[in-house]
Amino acid sequence: MRWTQALIPTLKESPAEAEILSHKLLLRAGLVRKLTGGLYIFLPLGLRTLRKVEQIVREEMDRAGALEVLMPALQPPEIWEQSGRYETAQAVFFKVRDRAKKEWILGPTHEEVITTLVAGELSSYRQLPKNFYQIQTKFRDEIRPRFGLMRAKEFIMKDAYSFDATEDGAQASYKKMYDAYTRIFQRCGLKAMAVEADTGVMGGKFSHEFMVPAETGENEVVYCDGCNYAANMEKATSRHMMHADTGDKELPIEKFATPGATTINALTKPPYGVPAHQQIKTLVYVANDKPILILLRGDHQLNESKLTGALGTATFRPSTPDEIVDLLKAKPGSLGAVGVKDIPVYADEVLRGASAMTTGANEDGFHLRNVALGRDIHPAHWADLRTTQVGEACATCGKPLKIQRAIEVGHVFKLGTKYSKALNALFVDESGVQNPAIMGCYGIGVTRTLQAVIEQCNDKDGIVWPVSVAPYTVCITPLSVAKDGAVMQLAEKLYSELTALGIDVIMDDRDERPGMKFKDSELVGFPIRIGIGEKSLAKGEVEIKPRAGALIPTKPEDAVAKVLELIKAHS
Question: pLDDT tens, 248-262?
Answer without folding.
Answer: 678 999 999 999 999
